[in-house]
Design goal:
It is a single chain. The protein has 210 residues and is of the alpha/beta class. The protein has helices at residues 21-31, 60-68, 87-95, 106-116, 130-140, 145-159, 174-189, 198-209; strands at 10-14, 34-36, 40-41, 56-57, 72-78, 81-86, 99-103, 120-126, 167-170. The strands form two sheets. Strands 2-7-1-8-9 form a five-stranded parallel beta sheet, sandwiched between helices. Strands 4-3-6-5 form a four-stranded mixed beta sheet. A hairpin with a 2-residue loop joins strand 5 (72-78) and strand 6 (81-86).
Amino acid sequence: MDQANRRGLMLILSSPSGAGKSTIARHLLDSEDLEISVSVTTRARRGSEIDGKHYHFLSVEKFQDMRERDDLLEWAQVHDNFYGTPREMVEKALQAGRDVLFDIDWQGTLQLYEKMRADIVSVFVLPPSAVELRSRLERRAEDSTEVIERRLKNASEEMSHWQEYDYVIVNDDLQTSFETVQSILKGERSRRSRQVHMADFVDGLRSDLS
């Protein structure tokens, strides 16, 4: 049974900033047949980011236009900026049996639940401790002290939503966390509800045995 014989899935990774979801996501993209859902955002581009690869960077006016046309599957305001998921790419990928990876927050996850819950596998990534979370944000050296403090303040609220996810992992060892998510993905790909042509396949096997 190849990829075309099943419907694609939406793998969501969420966590507080600095807990490691983006690193896990990069490892998955390097090792698995996954497409990344490239979000649109109104925040300023960081020096290490490429437009169209990490995000599609838009003006507030353009973002609002997409939202009003219902061209976004979900959108959220995070740290004074807007983020959203374009609809068209996701729907085409799932219909073609391709899996899509989402690196989004809990607000976007709940919106996607409302529209496409059966297609979603969600994983929440927790840091091993508050001290380690602060250390990771500081080592990243991409945000000002003010922004880091704001992200830490918001982390408690973000972590309160862990029970709304299908799976939860504590990222105290990156390799172990990556392998856990990899196992989740492999198992979910074989879920019966996603094998859209399995009934015909089984009927054919039974007919051949008759």
